[in-house]
Amino acid sequence: MLIKTTMKVKQQLREAIDLLFTRGPASSADYTRLVLHCAQANDFNQAKRLQSHMEIQLFQPQDSFIHNKLLHLYAKCGKLSDAKHLFDNMPRRDVYSWNALLSVYAKVGLVEDLCAVFDQMPCRDSVSYNTLIACFASNRLSSKALKILVRMQEDGFQPTQYSYVNALQACSQLLDFRLGKQIHGRVVAADFEKNTFVWNAVTDMYAKCGDIDRARWLFDGMIKKNVVSWNLMISGYVKMGNPDECIHLFNKMQLSGLKPDQVTVSNVLNAYFQSGRVDDARNMFSKITKRDEICWTTMIVGYTQSGREEDALMLFNDMLRGNVRPDSHTISSVVSSCAKLASLYHGQVIHGKVIRIGFNSNMLVSSALVDMYCKCGVPFDARIIFETMPVQNVITWNAMILGYAQNGQGQQALALYEKMLQENLKPDNISFVGVLSACINADKVEEGHKYFDSISEQGMTPTLDHYACMITLLGRSGNIDKAVDLIKGMPHEPDYQIWSSLLSVCSKGDIETAEFAANYLFQLDPNNAGPYIMLSNLYAACGRWKDVAVVRSVMKNKNVKKFAAYSWVEVGNEVHRFVSGDHNHPETERIFGQLNRLISTLQQIGYNPDTSIVLHNVVEEEKFRSISHHSEKLALAFSLIKKPNGVAPIRIIKNIRICDDCHVFMKFASMTIARPIIIRDSSRFHHFIGGSCSCKDLWINFPATFPLIPPTSGVPRSFNELKVAHLFKFSSPPDLATILFLSRFSLLQSYSMHTSLVPISLKPSPFHRHSFRLFSAQQHVYRINLTITSLSRAGNINAARHLFDKTSTKDIVTWNSMLTAYWQNGLLQHSKSLFQSMPHKNVVSWNSIITACVQNNNINDAFKYFTAMPEKNAASYNAMISGFVKNGHVEQAQKLFEEMPRPNVVSYTVMIDGYAKMENGIKRAKALFDAMPFRNEVSWTVMISGLVENGLYEEAWELFVKMPQKNVVACTAMITGFCKQGKVDEAWNLFQQISCRDIASWNIMITGYAQNGRGEEALNLFSQMVRTGMQPDDLTFVSLFTACASLALLEEGRQTNALVVKHGFDSDLSVSNALVTMYSKCGEIVKSELAFGQISHPDIVSWNTIIAAFAQHGLYDRSRYYFDHMVTVGVTPDGITFLNLLSACCRAGKVDETVYLFNLMVHNYGIPPRSEHYSCIIDVMSRAGQLQRACQLIQEMPFKADSSIWSALLVGCNIHSNVQLGELAARNILNLDPYNSGAYVMLSNIYAAAGKWKDVNRVRVLMKEQGVKKQRAYSWMQIGNKLHCFVGGDPSHPNIDDIHVALRRITLHMKVKGNFEEAVS
Predict the structure, then answer these.
(1) Ramachandran assignment for 1317, one of left (phi > 0), alpha (psi -120 to 50 degrees), beta (any other)
(2) Each residue of 1126-1140: pLDDT tens digit?
(3) Is 763 strand, coil or helix?
């Protein structure tokens, strides 16, 4: 109800200011009343229009009240430029004016400018000081905030409640308990003890400084508590890790009668998750009627951290359906859930959503994506994301090194580590965990020793995680004794992980060592089944069946249960779970049949099931049956049934380690089915391709329990409820190339710009200490780097620089972060100065400064930096090539491309894009495309788009047909090409083939209908789009207005305008311009002018639109008025402006005015005239009878006349019956366009007017011989929601009799009035 009331108030305010523009000057009282209404409605747009009206009318208020109100509103809305412009032009200023300007600088975070304004103030009050204190505190400049508090008192001003609250916030940030207590004393002395606002701040200060008991004592002593009081106390308990007391306090709050708000609920949800009460959190969440993004995020993060990943994904889908925008924490948690579930499909879909909502450069989200792709077995895609990061710190490198180690690519991991050292980055503990893990996977014992010894050389002490890696490495190489000696010499007490690592590498000859290790494990965790199973398996392998029985008896007596082994596979967005010998699946018969056939086929080429690994004392036939139906084999058979002819990898997840026989089986299977098989077990990834595995068979016979991948507690349930199409519109999951192409960056910067994204932040996982996880940096310098990047992304560059200057231990990442922060905020000179002062520069630094120059169109300086680089990588070349292409220097880009040592797919694609956009460069683009050694979807899409943009539609279609995998972007490009050719039906056919359409494809199809005169179909398609749940954007509404204008559908245009307001696009400039055009073409010129008046900052297109509107209605004076007004406000007219003016003159028959404007355009504004301009001036001359003058002008034109110019002359010849010149004009038209029916008809009319009937017949015979048909004339009108079309003499209309009766009545009435003859003439 409140929203509807607010909308009504704003509508009334807009109508009032509309009326003001139509009436002219207003009184001071009127202006004052309207300003107050704008302030009450918080309507910046109408306030800006009101200010514009006052300036146009040269109104100057007698005091500063009106301007101060406007200034305060601009400050409240954060409109710095508007506020500063108004302040600078105020004739009278007072302290209120200065305070308002201070507040706008504070709101946008420009601290230095705020201080400058504060120092310039002629007089100050307490509000001035409070604004400064609050700004410093909110920008974490706490020391400065406290200094201003002292200065405030020195200058004779008593601190107010706001002063104390902000000062206490500064103490909390500094964790300065002593100073906070002093301010607490001042608060008491100032008699603010009963002020709830101040007392809340005191309580919060104690809680954040760690004295939660003192905070509680103060809280309990408060007489009047509000919701904020309870929230601060509840939040304090959550942060102190005391969830039970938090929940207890929440219950007391409810008993007090106060209603919790969203902040309360989020804190209590956090408390429930902290205490493991997940179901209680869900019940509480389900009772919340109005949920904000914080509540949704709290629940999703809580589910993810509690091992309920599938619930997190389901809830995320519900969040999107509720039109709640997720933040970076939400997205990163959801991506993390996909990683834990190894659900690549959903991870890719959410990656698409990330691009769509603009989080692709967020550090948390990017980090989560790297982790997800690695844990889904796609390290190549993870590396692409890694390489596109501009600033790579140690944590980022660790992520990629561990990702390679997880996927059995040990050599790549070690190579990346060496490259990291070359970048002068110091490794940390996690780095060495990744490196040692890579040595284990690659069976590099000597290298492992070297890296282990280098831990001490780097000034660190090896941790238990490092020792666990070394024990595994030594044991696997047969050096069990050395592993035991290493344990004995450890400075740490061995933990569960150490003994588990030792047990895992024991073989049949190491029974005593295995028993020794197992004994410690039984003591540390007597209920863990793992050690019992491993020891039992070793006994069975040695044939010691009595010992096997003893172990199993102990397990039974202690109620230790072996966890079930199972595998699952995701097919068709549905998860299918299998256990060994499973007969519960609905397609059991087909699965076992498929598996048995596959086993027979593999046996023929050498596969022999290894029954020796069946550690049960049963007959051989039973062993064969047992081993043949393991869960991963059933999952593979099911995948082959569902996708028998597929080429994509088959992905299987298993909750324990894959057995030796299944490992051999999968190698043979990958060779036979000619498809990669990727299995993620509890230890690592196995990539089976062409008969070999990425682990190089080093994992066989070593039952490792050192999982680089956290073991999944359970198989996910079906994802059928998770409508991924709601997240991102793809018919199948997009690959990395498509995802990056869809980014807002230019086509090639998506891959090549190491300098456009922010650094990744990672932290260790709670799943085993050596495991890897994302989202937080543990060391101080990492937090500094992260904070600098976050502040710069928020536009708070001053705070970022302050933190940078304050940091004493800067690493190369710190410098690069600040360097990137400057250029991302448009401060190129600051970037250059910082770059020059850097003590050390790496390739990322150079790439960043090059990109800074490119982004600011300073291509010369970019090239200077590029030339000076001591060492260049592919990203350096790609950034520079992209810069040249962006600035139109394609030849320089080509030269650099040819010099590039190893051009990659990005380099080729950049050049193709550049060639396609240059004049006559499309052939070079196609030649380079044909020469590419490897193409991805981006390459294909760029080439197809280039061909379409150059009008080579047939070549584009041929290439599109050959494209291996067609994405929605390529389809949209082809639809554009069809529409430009007028082949709308072909476009529609292709559009229907896109299974998951995005907003761009809908818009192009709607635009195609509208621009080809099929407005009704455009509107119908929009209705269909809305029914699918797709949200329109600005281009959608522009297309709809175009469709309404083409058919003069006024009512539909009004309905579309209502939708524009509903979706918040009423202030969008392109939409507003289209609205002006729509009203004009529907005959509502007054509404068109009002729509123009509502545009707060019209651009050249806006002015051209309103001038064209009046020109189309024959109102030259109004067109000229807006032209003069446009020039007055400083907007320079262009060729379109003059074309509209000349058109208006032509319609008004003003020959001299037309000639004057033409000369004004050419001589005063230096605009070279085009054919359309000459056509206007020739048209007005011809219609005025100045045919010889028009002919002379045609001869003097600097280019050859086209058919439109000769048509303008022919019209004049028809009006004035000039046969000779008419024949000349028609002859030239038909030479240029032999099928122009208009020229034939008009020449025939000229002959008929002159009585030359033989020539008339000759023209008609010629038309018939040439197959030229006269264009059919028709009219239409809209009544209600229905269009009625009429053709001359057409009797088919259902109301034709009534129409004829009405027509005769009108004719009779005109005869009576005596003007019928004039009308028909």
Answers:
(1) alpha
(2) 888 888 999 999 998
(3) strand
